[in-house]
Amino acid sequence: MAAQPFPGYTSYKYFLVTTPSPLVAHVEINRPEKLNAFHEAMWLELGAIFRRLSTDPDVRAVVLSGAGERAFTAGLDVTAAASNEGILGGENVDPARKAAKLRRHIEEFQGSISEVERCEKPVICVLHGVSMGLAIDISCCADIRVCARDTRFAVKEVDIGLAADIGTLARLPKAVGSLSWVKDICLTARDFSAAEALAVGFVSQVHDSKAAALAAAFKTAAFLATKSPVAVQGTKELLNHSRDHPVDDNLRYTKVWNAAAVQTTDVTAALTSGLQKRKPTFEKL
């Protein structure tokens, strides 16, 4: 069955939001003629979409992909960025004031991409084709990453004269087990393959095609949507907290979180259904 437009999410210019199955949203970057390269309006839309999905009771899992066969995203649209003179305010502006404007601009950009990570619902990112620069920033914010065998990854910022500043350098070292590998690909800006991404743990699955990768993501998302939304949200929250805090801090946070969360009726529903050997159903959150 073809995916249906998601009610309430049809007004976005650069993203398609559909529902391939109940309680699952598919967010598709929709600028394939430009390899899904981002300019400012796009990252603002992305942030707005994920802020809304985060609290939408009709969504329990999200799949994020790129339209077209050539690219998930080629990263920042450097032509659009270079023409945005308003960011710095012209040649005669004091350097400190230029820096203040640029700092706010970067903060807005970072914040929009971080909405993918802040989303309360699990996010599965499906990468294919050209997946460079901003593709790594975005996918590092996802909970699960899968890709097609033809995916070409790269952290390209060094090759355009800057250090990556939208999240890769903060998140990628925590997403894989080797800081040596992270420094290798970030300092050299070299391409790496789907097989290499799987070997270091950056992705958890590699599929023969984009279609196969999407199908696997949709299947996982549909399965997640059958789980208790209280349990899924809590698990994502506590795992992300664990990544960024010491064990004792996470145990303390978990104690406080679950003191409220275990009072949910979802626990009773799950236990009862297990005893009765039937599939549980859970109320919207």
TrEMBL record:
One of its GO terms (molecular function) is delta(3,5)-delta(2,4)-dienoyl-CoA isomerase activity. InterPro entries: ClpP/crotonase-like_dom_sf (IPR029045), Ech1-like (IPR045002), Enoyl-CoA_hydra/iso (IPR001753), Enoyl-CoA_hydra_C (IPR014748). Pfam families: ECH_1 (PF00378). Keywords: Acetylation, Fatty acid metabolism, Isomerase, Lipid metabolism, Peroxisome. Pathway: Lipid metabolism; fatty acid beta-oxidation. It is found in: Peroxisome. GO terms for biological process: fatty acid metabolic process. Its main location: other. GO terms for cellular component: mitochondrion; peroxisome. Belongs to the enoyl-CoA hydratase/isomerase family. PANTHER family: DELTA(3,5)-DELTA(2,4)-DIENOYL-COA ISOMERASE, MITOCHONDRIAL, ENOYL-COA HYDRATASE. This is ClpP/crotonase-like domain-containing protein. It comes from Staphylotrichum tortipilum. The lineage of its organism: Eukaryota, Fungi, Dikarya, Ascomycota, Pezizomycotina.
